[in-house]
Amino acid sequence: MRHILVSCTLLAAAPALADPLPSWNDTEAKNRIVTFVETVTDPASSDYVTPSERIAVFDNDGTLWAEQPVYFQLIFALDRLADLAKEDPSVLSSDTLKAAAEGDLQTVVQGGEEALIEVVNASHSGSSVDDFQTAVAAWLETARHPDTGLPYDKMTYQPMVELLRYLRDEQFKTYIVSGGGIHFMRVFAERAYGIPPEQILGTYGNSDYTEVEGVPTIVKAPGIAFVDDKAGKPVNIDRTIGKRPIIAGGNSDGDFAMLEWSTAGDGPRLGLIVHHTDAQREWAYDRDSHVGRLVDGLDKGPDMGWLIVDMAKDWSRVYTGKQ
Amino acid sequence: MRHILVSCTLLAAAPALADPLPSWNDTEAKNRIVTFVETVTDPASSDYVTPSERIAVFDNDGTLWAEQPVYFQLIFALDRLADLAKEDPSVLSSDTLKAAAEGDLQTVVQGGEEALIEVVNASHSGSSVDDFQTAVAAWLETARHPDTGLPYDKMTYQPMVELLRYLRDEQFKTYIVSGGGIHFMRVFAERAYGIPPEQILGTYGNSDYTEVEGVPTIVKAPGIAFVDDKAGKPVNIDRTIGKRPIIAGGNSDGDFAMLEWSTAGDGPRLGLIVHHTDAQREWAYDRDSHVGRLVDGLDKGPDMGWLIVDMAKDWSRVYTGKQ
User: Fold this and answer.
1) Are A204 and B239 within 8 A, CB to CB?
2) Residue B7 scores a pLDDT above 50
3) Measuring CA to CA, which of A37, A241, A284, B140 is 20 to 30 A from B1?
């Protein structure tokens, strides 16, 4: 028999409840987000949602961090090819790969999907997951964005980082559901967004289970096994999470199906689109963009009750890495 | 400014710490499990593991619940085929399917993989995930095991349910990684094991994202997209969890790669095999079994430091549903 005595007295002079979203201006967007969260977490509300169903999913490129002039992972791929070629020039076995290693993005993009897959295979396969992630981490340390001069993982959106934290504080489970690669994102997502590896869904390549120097190891193989984009997003969420999210955020038509499926569920739902309207602090693009093309979300989203976040108007600050 | 005053006094007469594994006999197996958990959760230990890395993965069939005379999901498949045929006899479009709907397991098994896939396609596709799961739930309510007379979800192993709870109490995240189907397992796993849908990895079929009566819906389609068995298990864990587990439990050679990969990581690791040795209370089978065949685990496991759990000797109770 043990006796336990616990006694505690807390006397705290607390400030008025802190603003959970300080980088959001006091506009309708912020109001709608806070009202939604307060409603679904209020046990007295008829729209109360039990914590286990508080699933929030977000795209990454263009939603949680920037995606111009091209997806950052593609820039990594080119840099990595150049690195690999330094050790073994024979990896540059085609004109496309030679152009890629020279940073000639235009040639790669003009080569279409075939060229992109060639670049991804050459830069993303042939090493263990651990070694690949070590290379990503090293790249993030040194690479700088051509326009902002910032490390890429400082080009995360401060308002969205605050939103993720706010949701977790309100017992939401936050997930990334991105067209980006899982092994790439997992290197920085926990530090940058507070989202652990097991809550990161994305595109993935083939893998081999094999021995490397006698140690059982997962090795990244050529070929893409699953593309986490468009209808692939709800399918992947169903497979991996097994619940229909009550909050979904994206920025492009690649996210349309995810928002559509999430907000079609019963009860309160929040669909959110980050609209890139800020040519001063970030970029302004939507319908005609080669990256993050947004047509359906603008045409149909508002009628479906989705919140279109106007970056220029609704955010007082953009990047985590720049005030 | 708000003032918050919180005062609490707890005076409790607590019993000596309760045994976390009451259905395990006081044998070496229990001792090894408890010692491992106490070591990795002790901040003063050199083998301390931070909570975020406390990942524990378990096979389901034969590890967390029984799997004789055949996988329970196959029995469900046959019953479901019979149900579907009542509404529309044309679903029984082959001799294999006719035999299956009559419960003629032998004909199905003799037909090999082709027959199995035919049965799975006919019984597991063509409906929404929601409707499929409603059917599974209804089946679990009424179906009874031919030998024990128990509902299938009462043939979970009480010692393993206790182990899962114990691990979660010690801040482990517990996962299922099974050859069984994700949509099937998720119907009962949270209630039976305390494992939520997002921590259930398994085999899955193709899915279509489509509209059903105007509502965006995931519909189960014919064809198997991923088989979560053998090398597929570590590959799936890497894709979905993104961490190498520190505890892995299984019962057959289909789990060998998962245990091998998990226990090959740095630091303390626990591999555990449930050895079916109990012909009195359950079944006794290993090397020659058509279900849950276990050869490599017995031959190589002990040398790799894996714990071979002797069901007859190490468990004081078997089923959750029977004392």
Assistant:
1) yes
2) no
3) A37
Residue span of the structural domain in which A216 resides: 28-68+151-314
Residue A8 pLDDT exceeds 50 = no
Decide if A4 and B12 are in contact by the 8 Å CB cutoff: yes
Q: How many domains does chain A have?
A: 2
Candidates B196, B204, B242; nearest CB to A200: B242
Q: Best of B198, B227, B269 to disrupt the A interface by mutation (most A CBs within 10 Å)?
A: B198
B207: chain A residues, CB-CB within 8 Å: 235, 238-239
My answer on whether B188 and B283 are in the same domain is yes
Q: Note the pLDDT of residue A322.
A: 84
Judge: A13–B5 Cβ closer than 8 Å, yes or no: no
Let me know whether B43 and B167 are in one domain.
yes
Nearest to A231 among B4, B209, B243 (CB): B209
Chain A: closest CA distance from residue B204 (Å): 7
> Are B1 and A10 in contact (CB < 8 Å)?
no
Share of chain B above pLDDT 90, in %: 93
Could you write out the three-class secondary structure of chain A? CEEEEEEEEEEEEECCCCCCCCCECCCHHHHHHHHHHHHHCCCCCCCCCCHHHCEEEECCECCCECCCCCCHHHHHHHHHHHHHHHHCHHHCCCHHHHHHHCCCHHHHHHCHHHHHHHHHHHHHCCCEHHHHHHHHHHHHHHCCCCCCCCCHHHCEEHHHHHHHHHHHHCCCEEEEEEEEEHHHHCCCHHHHHCCCHHHEEEEEEEEEEEEECCEEEEEEEEEEEECCCCCHHHHHHHHHCCCCCCEEEECCHHHHHHHHHHHCCCCCCEEEEEEEECCCCCCEECCCCCCCCCCHHHHHCHHHCCEEEEHHHHECCCECCCC
A289-302, pLDDT tens digit by residue? 999 999 999 999 99
Q: How far is A36 from chain B (nearest CA, A)?
A: 22
List CB contacts (< 8 A) between B7 and chain A: 8-10
**Which CATH number do you get for residue B178?**
3.40.50.1000
Give me the pLDDT at residue A177, please.
98
In this structure, the answer to whether residues B196 and B272 fall within a common structural domain is yes
pLDDT band (50, 70, 90) for residue B195: very high
* Chain A residue whose CA is closest to B218: A235
What is the complex's ipTM, to 2 decimals?
0.94
Same domain, B256 and B122: no
Residue A77 reports pLDDT greater than 60: yes
- Evaluate whether residue A128 is within a structural domain: yes
Is the residue at B4 inside a domain?
no
For residue B212, the model assigns a pLDDT of 95
CA–CA min distance B94, chain A (Å): 30
Residue B175: per-residue pLDDT: 99
Would the pLDDT of A11 be above 90? no
Average the pLDDT over each of B10-14, B35-39, B79-83 and give the range with the smallest value: B10-14
How would residue B17 be classed by pLDDT, with cut points 50, 70 and 90? confident
